[in-house]
Amino acid sequence: MKDCIIIGSGVGGISAALTLQANGKDFLMFGVENLSDKIEKAEKIHNYPGLPDVSGKDFVAALKAQLSLAKIEVKTEKVAGVYALKDGFTVLTQAGEQYKSRTVILATGVESIRQIDGEEEFFGRGVSYCATCDGFLYKDKTIAVLCTTKRLEHEIGYLANFAKKVYLIPMYKNVEVSAENVTSIVKMPKKIDGDRRVNRLIFSSAPSQDIPQVLEIDGFFALRESVSPAVLVGGLKTENGHIIVDRNMTTNIPGCYAAGDCTGRPYQYAKAIGEGNIAAHSVSEFLR
Amino acid sequence: MKDCIIIGSGVGGISAALTLQANGKDFLMFGVENLSDKIEKAEKIHNYPGLPDVSGKDFVAALKAQLSLAKIEVKTEKVAGVYALKDGFTVLTQAGEQYKSRTVILATGVESIRQIDGEEEFFGRGVSYCATCDGFLYKDKTIAVLCTTKRLEHEIGYLANFAKKVYLIPMYKNVEVSAENVTSIVKMPKKIDGDRRVNRLIFSSAPSQDIPQVLEIDGFFALRESVSPAVLVGGLKTENGHIIVDRNMTTNIPGCYAAGDCTGRPYQYAKAIGEGNIAAHSVSEFLR
Predict the structure, then answer these.
(1) How many contacts does A have with B, using Cβ atoms within 8 A?
(2) Rounded to whole angstroms, how far apart are CA atoms A210 and A230?
(3) How far does the CA of residue B63 sit from the closest CA of chain A (Å)?
(4) pLDDT tens digits for B188-242?
(5) Is the C-alpha dihedral spanning B221, B258, A283, B240 positive or negative?
(6) What ipTM is given for this predicted complex?
């Protein structure tokens, strides 16, 4: 049982990790290899105190060096869900591993690509964010897959092994999917619709001559780097896609804290760092 | 009329300044030459993202370089008071200068030296924080002066010019005050007491053979680097010495924001930086 599990390796998560480390806490941090796409892609950051006009690449390099110096490892397994139990939390990865902790800090950022209408409504009823978790449910079925990044392309192949037919909506360039039952659509869907479960994917107009405006499907997968916090943690209270927190970064779930862009605007590095720091202090307080 | 005046040059104030600068706002920042005693005296900072195990001195140097690059000046005049007017704020310095702005960000830190019992009760009724503002009121009177730093020693001489008798309680080493009417006391007072105004300074026991346990005085000056925010800004709501703010760093006074240690624990650089950033965004929002 760890003291804390941090989900997210952007500056909010890193700030929390450095402070937990300084406070002698035993924790895990889940994130991505380059720590944060948002930071890495930033051209120049003009308002981060201590690093004048730093480039995103240099900032990532400095943060990596700092984590290495502090002996903090970033686990790159994708988190599938966080479950609040009686005496703590279980974090389940998409690979099926389980990790337990007394507290959780959510520093998941905000997905800049907005949700499809109907996505939240049908989550768990035909909408899934995890190919390896739910792929087998769609054996010989017809599914649509929205994939936002090349990094998750391998999951499309995984889904194509089960499904009879895959309609792929890729949001990146150089698509390399060889499975014969996969058809690409270069148009964003307008709405996920259905009766009790997902039945249809609706476009504003027919995407092409072969693809009708209303596509009959059995399931919809959205493969994104991060899922919305409310989906990740059942029962978590959010508002307009942001986690509701107080000044101690406490969420509505005891022992669950949040920091950074996922708690709302301004989407700024300094804000995320401040909140990560506060969340770590709140964790220490909670453990006491 | 400036867009904003920032009071305090610690990392909270600097973070606000860099963000206001990035947002093209016209502002002034008041602070001290070395930016922050707290930072400068820090041995190593272990949990500031981007600057691994940075020393306080190196951090101050990096911040100074950054302010210089961004062409942000730190005005070192001491602020005597902030007055909320109909269309903005007037900031009065101890030298008697006035500056006007539409908004204010308080980033004044926390005074680590605690207040004397009775100080707040008698503020404005014999207790003063400003020698140049109130010194002339004590012509031919007996006063006690608590001075926390060598940097403010010159104000003791100023007070000694007016007062008949000055009892000095210095909280620094190498006291160099030559005026004949100044007597030093090397003991902290326990309580400031009086009837309608300050009449007595009470010690737990007589400080020396010449100085009685209860000293008759007409006024009490506390010369500190910073005064409590509630004293600085009339009507500002505080709780246990901290400014009450919401998640947007809004105080109870419209247009007045706060950031950093003055808003409460944890007293951490990362927290202060985050709050300074948010306060600057709130100012931009307010001006819009």
Answers:
(1) 123
(2) 36
(3) 5
(4) 999 999 999 999 999 999 999 999 999 999 999 999 877 788 888 988 999 888 9
(5) positive
(6) 0.76
